[in-house]
Amino acid sequence: MSKRLFRLFVFASALLPIGVSATTRTWPGVAPCAGTLQACVNGATDGDRIEIATSTPIAEDLSLYDRSLTLTAADGYAPAFGTNHWLSITSSAIAGDLQVSISRLSFNDGYVFANYNGAGTANYDLRDLTLARVSSDVANYIEVDASAGTINATLYGNRLSGVPRSIDRGLIQLNSGGATLNANAYYNHVTSTSATGVRGAGIFVDVHASSVAAGGGTFKLHGNEVRGGFFRSGIFISEGLFSNTASSVVARVYNNVAICADASSAGTGGSGIGFVANNGSIDAQAINNTVSRCYYGIMASQWSGGGAGASIAGTFKNNILVAYNGLALDPSVPGARTNDYNLINSTAASVSYGSHTSTAPASLVLDTQPRLRADSPAIDAADGVTLGFGLLLNGLPTTDADGLRRFKGTRADIGAYESGDANFTQVARSNTILGNSSVIDNAALNSNSGRALIATPNYNVGLFGGVDYDHPFGAYYPAPYWWLFNQDATLMPPGAHFDVFVPASGGGSFIHTSSASNTGGLVTTLSNGSVDSLPDRIVLVTQNWTAGGSALYNPHPIGVYYDVDARWHIANIDGATMPQPVGFNVYAQEPSPNAFRVTATSANLFPGGAVRLDHPLLDNTPCARPQVTRGFSFIPVVRGNFDVYYGVGNKWYIFGYSGVSLGEQFHVLIDPAQVFTCTDSIFADGFQ
After folding, report:
1. What are phi and psi of 43, to 5 degrees?
2. CB neighbours of 564 closer than 8 A, spacing ≥ 6?
3. Rounded Cα–Cα distance for residues 629 and 393 (Å)
4. 3-state secondary structure (DSSP) of residue 546
5. Neighbour-count burial of 607, counting CB atoms closer than 10 A to its CB (0-12 exposed, 13-18 middle, 19+ buried)
6. Which of 226, 427, 613, 618 has most Cβ atoms within 10 angstroms of its Cβ?
7. Is the separation of the CB atoms in 563 and 652 below 8 Å?
8. E strands of 463-553, at which residues?
9. Whole-number mean pLDDT of the chain?
10. Cα separation of 262 and 273, whole Å?
């Protein structure tokens, strides 16, 4: 089958997993997983992994009681529970330590509830769950309740839409009542389905009935996006709700986005971020958040009827607050509070601002898409020391709300999004082609020899048909323009497309040159603080002919890998000797929902060598421009090149011209700002 025909007719049926290990069970499958999913859970052994291999709606409620299990989707499947069905994780009072992981499941008008009532420690990991409201039902939420012992909870990359079921509830609910709850909520997307303000909160945290000596827990909220008008707040941190016991809360709120329904003086559009104490204390840090269209941007106050012992202390810096009242920190509530380096656009003011506060217009792309325009005064205006030490000391990701690098350029930006990267499509047309090269004319690169661009061949840029590009390629810079060229000296094919990503300068973007001291055989070894001893990094590479300085070509496909020497390496993955000196542009960052690795499995790898990419920003988005670099494991040797394309099922794929082997990995980067720029169809009403 030709490549072109294959791209137009990829096999749509997913294949079953290759095999099942002793501790991995497939449902539906063999006993005890031959009947209901509940029977499978009941019959599994603690520590087992259950993979759900069906896309048929699951018409049952599910209970994990005193169990330690992993429950997830099998590769190639999208399990969904039927309408009004739920999943519950609970324990007895005599339960020991528990370990539960739930991921990649969907619920319509259903909920996920996790409680611990034992004397030990429960570790709950809830990620990549989708909960949607499709009727008038309000029982669509994720809730974690600590009633005894300690819960360590991770909520990562979940997507929830609906309305809270009461004024003191959230679509994500984190409760600590007489116990300790340490919760990390990262990169969750929470959306109100109401066009006007609703009761409750998007993310609701409450610690109550937990003595100060015991400690109610630590809550780290990073990179979340909350959309809609919530009466309590988009993100709400409460101490002592309905409790006279003085509790203690540690809240670290970094790089979140809260977008309300409106910012009118009537207050119907909701609030952005709120801290409310009753009789105890909140140790608060609200750093580099973006709030828009709200009545209150960030507020701190006391519950009505609260005691004299209530306090809210902490730091409120580097926030963009576009609201009727941007920063409302009630002076009657005790606590040492610092605010500075904020960008505040508001009508009312209730506190004195720090000396570095800006009240200039924020210059946002849209108030519903509050990234920074190029002229925003928020750019390079943050207190980078506070941000940097805050991320480090709290163990938070060094990424922004888009899941990309938090530090770029000379200084950090105010707000949740870090600006500076550029994305565009390069098309090799007759007026750009000269022999084996195509000239790039783009303001992000022109007259700038130091920009370490990353490029990925794109077969069809989301259109019908396309142009094959089976060539090792690179970039070079004869002033004032950058060019892309075929390393094998063949003519540049007319119509060839490239996704071009131009990272801002700063940690994670650098140029590497092979030399006698760092190169041997087919490999050259990187040495840079952004990758050394960091095996989890997502690494993208493009050859840079100019950086080599000696006019050497390297007409071979390249890939990256991490080895036992705690270093990352670039290899000629066809086994050819690595020349020296030759240059490479390198981009590296920690993983996030938008920077990740894809492994070729029997479910996502199709005959002919295409690996399907499954991602909410890529699916049904033909104008997306993913960046990809191949991983390498030495076995097997890879002879050919690859590109990306948009195809069957409205999905993006990676295509290997010489095939792709099971187990091969690819490093993938998606820029949400590029997706927004290329089309506003998924943001038509301001809500994802």
Report:
1. -90, -10
2. none
3. 32
4. helix
5. exposed
6. 226
7. no
8. 473-476, 482-486, 497-502, 509-513, 519-520, 523-525, 538-544
9. 92
10. 15
Sequence letter at residue 663 = G
For a pLDDT cut of 90, what percent of the chain falls above it?
Answer: 85
| Farthest CA pair distance, the chain | 78
Is 198:169 a contact under the CB 8 Å cutoff?
no
- pLDDT per residue as tens digits for the range 321-364: 999 999 999 999 999 999 999 999 998 888 999 999 999 999 99
Residue 487 identity:
Q
Nearest 10 degrees: Cα torsion 413, 414, 418, 422 = -70
Residue 1 pLDDT > 60, yes or no?
A: no
Residues contacting residue 460 through CB under 8 Å, at least 6 positions apart? 7, 466, 467, 497, 645, 646, 647
288 CB burial (10 A radius; 0-12, 13-18, 19+): buried
What local confidence, expressed as pLDDT, does residue 89 receive? 98
Residue 443 CB partners (closer than 8 Å, separation 6+): none
41's enclosing H/E stretch is helix 37-43
Buried b (16+ CB within 10 A) or exposed e, 183-221: bbbbbbbbbbbeeebbbbbbbbbbbbbbeeeebbbbbbb
This prediction has a pTM of: 0.93
Structure-token match 């506003």, residue found: 680
Task: Please return the burial class of 612, using the count of CB atoms within 10 Å of its CB with bins 0-12, 13-18 and 19+.
Answer: buried
CA pseudo-torsion sign 678, 681, 685, 686: negative
Helix (H, G, I), strand (E, B) or coil at 357: coil
Residue 681's pLDDT is what? 47
Q: Please, are residues 205 and 172 in contact by the beta-carbon 8 Å criterion?
A: no
Asked if 178 and 147 touch (Cβ cutoff 8 Å), the reply is yes
- Burial status of residue 662 (CB atoms within 10 A of its CB: 0-12, 13-18, 19 or more): exposed
Query: Does residue 418 contact residue 400 with C-beta atoms inside 8 Å?
Result: yes
Whole-Å CA distances, 554 to 455, 509, 543, 557, 667: 16, 21, 8, 9, 21
What is the residue type of 248?
S
Location of structure tokens 């075929």: 486
Residue among 372, 279, 369, 269 nearest 318 (CA): 372
**Chain centre to alpha carbon of residue 431:** 38
Query: Cβ–Cβ contacts within 10 Å for residue 84, how many?
Result: 17
- Amino acid code (one letter) for 225: E
The string of pLDDT tens digits covering residues 497-543 is 999 999 999 999 999 999 999 999 999 999 999 999 999 999 999 99
CA distance 445 to 457: 18
The rounded distance, in Å, linking the Cα atoms of 517 and 203 is 52
Please state, in angstroms and rounded to a whole number, the distance separating the CA atoms of residues 30 and 446: 61
Helix (H/G/I), strand (E/B), else coil: 371: coil
Please report, as a single letter, which amino acid is at residue 3: K
Q: How far is CA 308 from CA 304, 382, 662, in A?
A: 12, 35, 64
- Closest CA relative to residue 522, chosen from 592, 572, 463: 572
DSSP reduced 3-state for 384: helix
